[in-house]
Structure formats: structure tokens, C-alpha cells
Amino acid sequence: MIDNPAPTIPSLGPDNAVDLVKLGSSKLMTYIKYPGIETGDDHLLLLNFRGCAADGAVVDELNDQVAVDLSKLTPYGMPAEIENHTIVDLDGGLAFYSYRVAIAGGAPGDESRRMYFYVGKRPRARPALPVLQIQESHDLHLDLSEAPAALGVRLVPYEAMSVGDIVTLHCRRFDSDGDEYLPALAYPTTVTKADLDKPLALFLNKSDLRRVDGGRIELSYGIQYAGTALEQTLSATQTIELNPPTSAQLPALTIVGHTGGPINPVQFPQGLPLRINAWPDIGVGDELLCYVRSDLDLVEPLVLQARVDVSTIDKGFIELVVPPEWVKATDRSPIELQYQFAWMGSALSATPYPATIRGPLVLPMAIVVDARPGDDPVEGAGEIDADGLVSSGINIQIDDEASYGPNDKIEVFFEGFGTTGAHSVTAPVTPGGRLFNIPPQFIPANMDKLVNVYYKVTPQGETFAYPSDIYVLRVLPVPLNRYLAIQSAQAQASGGRISISAVPAQGEKFSFPRGWAYIRAGQTLNALLVGKDTAGATLTYPIFNNHVVTQAQASANLVETFVSKAELQKFQTGSVTVGVTITYEPGAETKLVDARFTLAV
């Protein structure tokens, strides 16, 4: 038996009905698609359309034929039209629709699966007005022992709500035997301008219900429109059992982007984005309320609302936003978020979502110890002498006004030049203190440059690091006169004179006998001897040629080498100079004042 799929009608609405207004005078376009239709140029489709009008009249189209035309195939399949009058005659009724396939003039095959659909405007399944919801209830049950004195009865705004309307809550009370306790309650509330476009709070006290605890109440409301004398519109009735609920609550909502711990409004400048996943049996027209409450008495609770439509169901979740001004107002306070939905004869509440709002951290800029304003003072900027930091490094103090906690992670950044000029530190000089040290090896690459100094705080239980304001520090270089020039073994003893004839076999020793400020392994040293050759032309010789300082040399504060007598003999006697450049990393270097020597025979 071939089980071909049912036809499809893409124009059907979400209520599985044909909209006759949209259809107008057109035929109803349907599509048929089954395995093998792509090669079915000799196939014939026999339509089986059976309708029942609202009054029970038979409206059928049987054995209408459609020849498969491969040139007309669409992604939906082969188009097949139903006459307009057939559909119009079914207004208020329904139809069943299927087909059979005949191949190459043979007998028709088995009937396909049938589809059914409605025609015309469908009756609204939802109540004419939203039903009332009680915040403290769940699954149409209310536990009075856990309820507050004033119950949270809410009404989703009706379309025509306006200032001056009188909305009266009606409550009939029945004891556990089903007997009504009289009188019935009627509590009117006048709609104000502040009530518009948000759920309306209605009055109902727990004390009104104690006499029927264990029984039930029937809640509804009536609307007396502004300027009129009588109630004109009545809602459907919602029945609430006055017993503890036994069913599980719905899962709690989530705050998008929040993984736990306190909520910092800085992370949510547009407010708190809430996500509520679709609940079982969610349906079009379900009314959702989300209650947002703060422990601060001065902060008004919020009630957010949403109405389920087809897009909600297809998407699978509902998104709401707690306004940023409310989040800011409830700074450093616990909050609770909970949602519930209601439909006539149905209502469920979710597990509450507790959280804490912690306001933006106060993180003033770091204090660089011994830094001073520059010649043209600028707020948040200063300078410091590198000359006095060779041994100590730079100390950075975090202001006592910085509002982080003892268990928060602190990281201080010295955001300088390149790889040897940038550093961060997480451990203070003294455990628990606010003084941090940048070791001296990270200073020389920043001489005569600007460095951004700041810190970041990662609160306990969070992953986001909050930066402080930035302090811009200029590192003033070590004065050149503080550097000891390159030395020659002979010149040290003879007032700068080097006798070529006295050069020993291993060569003339040139050295930095006390190193230089901030000497470190990995730095590059160049020293170029400059003079004239015997013909009077400029002659150079690299005493140190891209020499990389070793750890042993840095530890000993001694870098030395030898220049042979043969190399020195190439120079004309008389004055020569040695230019020295110390490179901390490419782009960061110090050029010393040229050293001068006198070559003699």
C-alpha cells in the first residue's frame, strides 16, 4: 500500500482555516507532492474534496483531475486549484481533502492521507476578556497559610481601558462542602492615568477568604466605562481552590548573560534581559505576568506582561526586559523575579529566581607613588624619574575609596611599550594590602614614553573584570650624564690615550665595568669605533655588533670585549670616538654620549 502524504495549503492561517476575506474571488491554491512526482509526466491526480457547510450541507468536488506538468512543479509540489464557489459555500464549515494517483492511464492508486481544515472566521477560543491572576497562586490553587494579608490580584489591561473606568472585582466564596458563603464580594477600583498600559492591581484581602479556607472562590470582574452608570462588560470566571497546590512549579526564568552571583548594572546598560521558555501546552492567547520585586521598600515592584501568539510558540520562548532605571534604583539589594501565566481554566506559576543587584564599583584611578605633575599639569597624568627606580621599580597604590571587596580579584596593569615594557600584577606587596609593585625590568623600554596605569576588579563569583580610570604616566629617562661611558683598559690609566704599540696580544679591552642603568639579559648592545684611515677617509669598526647581553653579564654588571692591534692599526692616530646604543627592544633604546679616545703609536 502506497501511503502518499496529504495535500498542503500554504495559505491556511494559524487557526487552520481559510480566510475568505483574503481569498476574495480567487480559487484556493493547494499543492500535491509525493515520492516520484518529479518524474511523473504521465501521472494524473484525482482530487477528493469533501466538505460540510455550517448547516450540514454537503459541498464536494470529487474526481476533479489535474495532469502532472513537470514544468509547473514548485517546492510545494504540483499546484491544484479548488473552485472559489466551493470554498465560499463552506463558510463556517470544514473540509477533508485527499487525492489518488493514476499512472500512464492505469487505474487510480490508493487514496493519500487526508487533511482537514476550516473555512471562514473561527470562533475565538480565548475568553472575551483576560482572566484574573493571583500572584500567590499556582495551578489554580491558593495556600492561604502562605499568602500575604493583601493578595496580589492582577488584571492584564483590556484594549479599551481608559482613565475613569471602574473595574469591580467579583468574588463568590464556597466552603469545602460546596455551599456558597454570602454575601458575594465586590471591590471596585478606579483606573487612573498611572494604571494605563500595565497590569491593574485589584483589591482582595486574605481575611475575606479565611471562612472558606479549604473550599473555593470564583473570581471575575466587570467594567463600568468612564462616563457611564452601569457595568457593561463582564469577564469569564476563574475558579481557585483554597488548598495548597500539589503540582510542581514551572522552571524559573533566566537572565540572559547572567551566570550567577551579584548582578552589576554596568553589564546590563539596557536593563535586565529576561527569557522565559515555553511551558507545556502553551497556547495562543495565554497571558503572562512577570513579577519583579526588590527588598528595598522605596522601590516599587514591577509587573511585566506578555501575550502569547503563534510567533511566541514557534520561537519557543518569551523575552522581557527589566528597565535599567529600576535596576539602578534597587542597587545593592536582593531582588526576586517570578512569572505566571493564565488562561480560562488554567494557570501555572514558576519557581522564583532570586538575585542581588550590586551597583557599579567605585574605581578611581591608581596612584603612582612618587609621580608628580608635568610642566603643564593635566588631570589624570603625571611623570616619574626612571633614575630613582633602578632597584625599587614602580609602586602603585590603589585609592582607599576603591569599593571592591576582600575576596574580589585585583589586577594592576602597567600598559607600557612592547613586550618588555608591559606588565600586570595580581599580588600586592603585603597580602590584603593595596600597594602593588612593577619590577624595574619593565621600566627602561618605557623611558621617554607614556604608560597607561590602571587596575581591574573581578568581583567574587563573577567573570567580568571592571576597569578603573586610567592614569597616564610619562617615564622620564635616566639623564645621559648618569651613564658611565665605554671604557678602554689603557685609556683609564692614561687620561684617554690608547697606545697601539702597547696593545696586548689578546687585544685592547673595551668594557662597561659597571654595566648601565637597568642592564638586563636580552638587551642588545652596539658600540661603533669611528675615526679615519691612513688616507684620511672615515673608518668605522664595531666593537659590539648587536651583542645580546647574557644573564652572566647582567648579573655581574660587566660587559667587555677585545679589539685586536691589527684593527686599531687601520686607524689614523689621533682622536677617535665610540658611539654606544643600548636597545631594550625594537623601538626602545638609549643612545649614550660618544666616548672620546686618542690613538697613539
Summary, kept brief:
With about 600 residues, this protein is mainly β. About 5% of the residues lie in helices and about 40% in strands. It has 5 domains: about 15-120, Sandwich (Immunoglobulin-like), CATH 2.60.40; about 135-240, Immunoglobulin-like (Sandwich), CATH 2.60.40; about 255-355, Immunoglobulin-like (Sandwich), CATH 2.60.40; about 365-480, Sandwich (Immunoglobulin-like), CATH 2.60.40; about 480-600, Immunoglobulins (Immunoglobulin-like, Sandwich), CATH 2.60.40.
Tags for this entry?
mainly beta; six-stranded mixed β-sheet; single chain; 601 residues; Immunoglobulin-like; 41 strands
Walk me through this protein's architecture.
With 601 residues, the chain is mostly beta strands. The chain has five domains: 17-119, Immunoglobulin-like (Sandwich); 133-241, Immunoglobulin-like (Sandwich); 254-357, Immunoglobulin-like (Sandwich); 367-478, Sandwich (Immunoglobulin-like), CATH 2.60.40; 481-600, Immunoglobulin-like (Sandwich). The strands form ten sheets. Strands 25, 27, 28, 30, 31 and 32 form a six-stranded mixed sheet that branches. It is elongated, with a radius of gyration of 44 Å. The chain starts with 16 loop residues before the first strand and ends with a strand. The model has no long low-confidence stretch (mean pLDDT 92).
| CATH architectural group of the largest domain | Sandwich
The low-confidence parts are: none
What is the alpha-carbon Rg in Å?
44 Å
The CATH class of the largest domain:
Mainly Beta
Binned strand content: 35-45%
Largest sheet: 6 strands, mixed
Q: Mean of the pLDDT scores?
A: 92
Query: Which structural category fits the helices and strands?
Result: mainly beta
Task: Count structural domains.
Answer: 5
